[in-house]
Amino acid sequence: MNQDYSVTQAANIGAFVGMIMLLLNYFKINITQEEVQTLLGAAITLGSIIVSFINRYRKGDIKLSGVKKTY
User: Fold this and answer.
1) CB 62 within 8 A of CB 69
2) Contact status, residue 5 vs residue 48, Cβ threshold 8 Å
3) pTM of the model
4) Which residues, in sequence order, are CB contacts of 64 under 8 Å at separation 6+?
5) pLDDT band for position 71 (50/70/90)?
6) Rounded to whole angstroms, how far apart are CA atoms 35 and 52?
7) Would you say the C-alpha torsion 55, 15, 45, 27 has a positive or negative sign?
8) Within 13 Å of residue 4, how many CA atoms lie on the same side as its CB?
9) 8 Å CB contact between 17 and 37
10) 69 pLDDT tier (thresholds 50, 70, 90)
11) Is the pLDDT confidence value at 2 over 70?
12) Rg of the chain (C-alpha set)
């Protein structure tokens, strides 16, 4: 996964981690920052896979099943 984020995106990710910690503390769920970072990393990875699939499908490069189209 490419880690070359813009400064704005890096700040957004940092703010997102803080927001997750605040929400979990509000609901009395105590987890460590490392656990939040792991969950966030997994969510970013999953999100990037989904975005990549959607973009390739919209482009017409693959079918909905994920199989490459033959022309």
Assistant:
1) yes
2) no
3) 0.54
4) 57
5) low
6) 26
7) negative
8) 1
9) yes
10) confident
11) no
12) 17
**Residues 51, 44: contact at Cβ < 8 Å?**
no
Read off the pLDDT of residues 46-62 as tens digits, 9 standing for 90 and up: 878 888 888 888 888 88
Q: Which of 22, 56, 51 lies closest to 36, judged by CA? A: 22
SS3 assignment, position 61: coil
Residue 43 has pLDDT above 60, yes or no: yes
Bridge partners, 68 (sequence order)? 62
| Res 6: pLDDT | 63
Strands (E), 1-71: none
For the beta carbon of residue 8, count every other beta carbon within 10 angstroms.
Answer: 8
Residue for token pair 């656990």: 35
Within 10 Å of residue 46's Cβ, how many Cβ atoms? 10
